[in-house]
Amino acid sequence: MVRKLETVLFLLLASGIALSLAAHVFAVFPFDLKVTHELQEEDHPVFASVMAAVSFLGDGWIPVILVGAATALCVIRKMYLEAFFVVATLSSVLLAAVLKVLVGRPRPPSFSLNPADFFVSFNQFSYPSGHVLFFVVFFGFLAFLAWMHLSGWWRVLSMAVCGALIVLIAPSRIYLGAHWASDVIGSYLIGTFWLIILVLLYLMVLHCRDGVSGVSPESR
């Protein structure tokens, strides 16, 4: 099991690095243009509304608000370790910002950057998608916590909502002209790698804490 996990992490990291280097060299790939064209041809108002609504959850300071709300819920339930790691998912925002500057890939021509944007120094760059990276790490970790600590319909519903948001954020960013398909693919690779690292760290700390306190996993 450990060997398989190490292999998965290696493949994610290697693929993410390879795609990041390619994005640094090439402003756009042929398949990027095709995917953007196909998505933006869809003009159904419901589709447009869903894409805009999903994308809004990653705009500006909204991720901080979402993390704050999830953290507060954990604190109310006295899940302090979980609250700490929910806050740690914000590291995905910093990771995206650093990679944007390092890769330096320009946005699609249809994208208009707001000059008043507080994060204009790195939001002018396209790769990776900060929205997608945040969604994968934050909602992915919430789905993991739901699987660990909830049961019944609450578990199913929570995981389904988180999963749906993770899936929908990629086409929303392409549809709105903010990113290329390769931007969101890279974000999925990097985000999944970072999510697994956070989950492993959480499980390690949880194991150490329960070992010290003498609490068995079955009694939690």
Short characterization:
This protein has 220 residues and is mainly α. Helix content is 75%, strand content 0%.
Explained architecture:
The protein is mainly α. The protein has one domain (2-24, 48-106, 118-215). Helix content is 75%, strand content 0%. The protein contains 10 helices and no strands. It has helices at residues 2-25, 30-40, 45-56, 62-76, 80-88, 91-103, 120-123, 130-149, 152-175, 181-213. Helix 6 (91-103) runs antiparallel to helix 8. The mean pLDDT is 91.
Overall average residue pLDDT: 91
N-to-C SSE series?
HHHHHHHHHH
Number of helices: 10
Instruction: Report the radius of gyration as a whole number of Å.
Output: 18 Å
Features:
mainly alpha; globular
Question: Which helices and strands occur, and which strands form pairs?
Answer:
Layout: H1 2-25, H2 30-40, H3 45-56, H4 62-76, H5 80-88, H6 91-103, H7 120-123, H8 130-149, H9 152-175, H10 181-213
